[in-house]
């Protein structure tokens, strides 16, 4: 966690050193520097960082993979709906991180339950598939088998 007026790119080497193994690192234009790209390449990963407009030679990147960054951005936007997280009330970084964890779990749980309920509603309204050679019994109580006697 950095101070509000500090650049995140300044502590990127420490973050990369603490990070576990990864194949691809997706970041925004603020992390577009040769030093950061070199650190990522040394770890054997792909840097998905759009080049800044001030670069003379534009570096290609995967725009489809870069779109996945939107998921993380939306999570942080949701987290900032929680006043305690948006304003960093906690003095200790561990307490702040615990608040972020709890809020993220609740956001995931609320969105996950809503998504599952929506999916089950849709699935219940769908008719079962028709398989060739397999007939489905009628649900009408008036339709009784002939030998039911």
In summary, what is this structure?
This protein is mainly alpha-helical. Helix content is 46%, strand content 4%. The chain starts with 11 loop residues before the first helix and ends in a 24-residue tail after the last helix.
Overall geometry: globular
Mean pLDDT: 77
Helix content: 40-55%
**Unreliably modeled segments:** 121-134
Structural class: mainly alpha
Radius of gyration: 26 Å
Portion of residues in beta strands equals under 5%
Helix-strand blueprint:
Layout: H1 12-18, E1 24-26, H2 34-42, E2 46-48, H3 63-66, H4 69-79, H5 83-87, H6 93-125
Parallel strand pairs: 1-2
Primary descriptors:
149 residues; mainly alpha; 2 domains; two-stranded parallel sheet; 2 strands; 46% helix
């Amino acid at each position: 966690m950095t101070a509000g007026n500090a650049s995140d790119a300044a502590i990127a080497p420490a973050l990369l050193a603490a990070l576990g193994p990864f194949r691809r690192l997706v970041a925004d234009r603020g992390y577009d520097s040769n030093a950061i790209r070199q650190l990522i390449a040394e770890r054997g990963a792909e840097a998905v960082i759009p080049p800044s407009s001030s670069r003379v030679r534009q570096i290609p990147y995967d725009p489809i993979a870069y779109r996945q960054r939107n998921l993380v951005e939306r999570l942080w936007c949701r987290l900032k709906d929680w006043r305690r997280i948006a304003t960093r009330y906690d003095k200790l970084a561990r307490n702040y991180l615990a608040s972020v964890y709890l809020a993220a779990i609740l956001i995931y749980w609320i969105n996950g339950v809503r998504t599952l309920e929506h999916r089950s509603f849709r699935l219940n309204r769908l008719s079962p598939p028709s398989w060739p050679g397999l007939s489905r019994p009628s649900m009408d109580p008036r339709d009784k088998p002939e030998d039911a006697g």
